[in-house]
């Protein structure tokens, strides 16, 4: 596999804005967690494709906890960025906020770490471009990502793929 050129984090930052309709909610008018998860996966996948320039598959999503809900008629704001790249996989951080477009209130809902694997036309894992760490924030997130990866790999079965 030829090593691809490194890319800036800013080149693949992805944002999405969704309006919460009755079809997205439960009987209490609060958004379904599964719907938020689907948007997280989509936003993160676009970010991963922008970074890798190839097709990607979702390998895993770390544990999630929803801090606050979002109700019908409110807005969901998603922002995804690459935190770290490995050999054929990369980690994406997605931050999700709620917004009341009428009052301007914004609140945090959930953050998610999603791991994608870049695949070639035969669906075999293929190498990903490294990220260029430019800011203290980039470096802090990349360092923490290495620890999360170690935990994932040990859960996967004795560090396979490290
Ligand atoms: C993800 C997948 C491609 C890994 O294939 P594999 O044969 O196990 O490949 P490898 O063991 O060579 O691992 C490839 C990379 O995936 C990573 N990986 C595999 N499973 C992982 C998991 N559960 N969590 C995080 N990373 C994982 C490995 O660490 C490795 O990364 P690296 O090259 O950066 O070190 C394969 O399991 C797959 O296709 N899963 C289904 C994906 C899918 O259908 N997703 C939902 C719809 S998109």
UniProtKB/TrEMBL annotation:
Signal peptide: none
Pfam family, one: 4HBT
GO cellular component: cytosol
Keywords in alphabetical order: Hydrolase
Domain HotDog ACOT-type, residue spans: 10-122
GO MF annotation, one: long-chain fatty acyl-CoA hydrolase activity
Alphabetical list of InterPro entries matching this protein: Cytosol_ACT, HOTDOG_ACOT, HotDog_dom_sf, Thioestr_dom
PROSITE patterns reported for this sequence: HOTDOG_ACOT
GO process terms (BP): acyl-CoA metabolic process; fatty acid catabolic process
Family of this protein: Belongs to the acyl coenzyme A hydrolase family.
PANTHER family the UniProt entry points to: ACYL COENZYME A THIOESTER HYDROLASE, CYTOSOLIC ACYL COENZYME A THIOESTER HYDROLASE
Name by which UniProt lists this protein: Acyl-CoA thioester hydrolase
């Amino acid at each position: 596999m030829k090593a691809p050129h490194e890319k800036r984090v800013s080149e693949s930052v992805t944002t999405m804005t969704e309006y919460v309709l009755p079809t997205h909610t439960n009987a209490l008018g609060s958004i379904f967690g599964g719907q938020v998860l689907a948007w997280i996966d989509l936003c993160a996948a676009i970010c991963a494709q922008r970074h890798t320039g190839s097709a990607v598959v979702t390998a895993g999503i770390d544990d999630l906890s929803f801090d606050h809900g979002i109700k019908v008629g409110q807005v969901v704001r998603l922002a995804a960025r690459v935190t770290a790249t490995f050999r054929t996989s990369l980690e994406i951080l997605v931050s999700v906020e709620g917004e009341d477009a009428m009052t301007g209130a914004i609140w945090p809902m959930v953050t998610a770490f999603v791991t994608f694997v870049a695949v070639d036309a035969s669906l075999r894992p293929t190498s990903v471009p490294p990220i260029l760490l430019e800011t203290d924030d980039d470096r802090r997130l990349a360092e923490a990502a290495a620890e999360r990866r170690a935990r994932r790999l040990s859960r996967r079965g004795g560090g396979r793929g490290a």
